[in-house]
Specification:
The chain is mostly beta strands and 113 residues long. 0% of the residues lie in helices and 50% in strands. The chain is built from no helices and eleven strands. Strands 2, 4, 5, 6, 9, 10 and 11 form a seven-stranded mixed sheet that branches. The protein has a four-stranded antiparallel sheet with strand order 1-3-8-7, with no helix packed on it. It is globular. The N and C termini lie far apart (40 Å).
């Protein structure tokens, strides 16, 4: 069964940091294009970052310089490091295996004082 499972979401104050994890089952995150997406309350899901198998990355302008995507192939896990968080970063974060069109269930991040 092909599956992705996110974790790491939490409540954090503005300016804080979190690291989100996305563990793959039935697929190998090192071979596929992996993406992260953000869905703010009452808004459409939006793309945040992409990690290519070769290691190249690209980010949405709204998170460039604050978020970092990486992976640990030994753990079959992709990470999204969120730094200098803002209230507008609040929402559910999803990872996706682009090659298999597999989505995780999402993890909630709340940024507020």
């Amino acid at each position: 069964q092909v599956q992705l499972m996110e974790s790491g979401g939490d409540w954090v104050q503005p300016g804080g940091s979190l690291r989100l994890s996305c563990v793959g089952t039935g697929l190998f995150v090192g071979d596929d294009i992996m993406t992260w997406h953000h869905q703010a309350p009452e808004k459409a899901r939006e793309w945040v970052a992409t990690l290519w198998p070769g290691g190249a990355t690209i980010y949405s302008p709204s998170v460039q310089g604050r978020f970092t995507v990486s992976r640990d192939e030994a753990k079959n896990t992709v990470y999204l490091q969120l730094d200098n968080l803002k209230s507008e970063d609040t929402g559910v974060y999803y990872c996706q295996d682009h090659d298999t069109s597999t989505w995780g269930q999402g993890t909630q991040v709340t940024v507020s004082s």
